[in-house]
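Quick note —
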Amino acid sequence: MNLPVKAKLVLIRMNWIFAEQVGLDPIKFLKFCIALPLYLLEYYRFQGLFKGRMKFTPCLHDKKAQGGNINNEYFWQDLWVAQRIFERAPTRHVDVGSRIDGFVAHVASFRELEVLDIRPVESKINNVVFRQVDLVNPDSIAQVFGQTGNCIPSVSCLHALEHFGLGRYGDALNPTGYQEGIANISKLLSPKGILYLSTPIGVERVEFNANWVFDPLMIINLAKKSELQLLRLVVITSEGIVAELTTEAEISQFANQHYHLGIFEFQKK
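Predicted structure written out below.
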């Protein structure tokens, strides 16, 4: 049965709410019911072959899974940007709000970096210097970097900007938080400094309080106001395909689609 696109999106969203927020995963439960009879059969067969101690510990979802899950945007985003930083080898790199257990770990495997986040990070991690900073609050930024700024040659902000101002991570509600975030990040960059910025792109909307989805052209124009020039825009589609957009017409097409991940590479003028 082929469901209409809108109905499919509603079902995906409802499954996400039940699985991630309520803690009930209908799809996983259905797969459990299907896989359980085979597990029981194999359990009793193995019990007949083995005379030692056994415990009932079902793992039902791995039999048909691939050897690793790379069909998600975080995998491709973290790998792609970490490779760019490795190639450029900046004298200093600062990250804003990206995943510690993903992108930050990638970069920390080959160099030191500074991590800024509104949330605390209590663990000590080799090659990671953590600073608790609110990137929408100039006073918070000044406490770490002083009033001058313009001193960092390389900055990343991956899958973070779309949360600014929505209160999800304890920040203050602010409908223009993402705009202030881009402006403040630009002020930290040194001339010709590089910003790697990833955000959801598509039909512009707020999915409160999960995230914004941005029109990619709006992000580009907003960055221009902060003296940031687009060098490259790479899109990771819902199928995990990485593609570079080279024309404004190509970029505009993604503004009318539901959801993809855009990785913007900007340079400060």
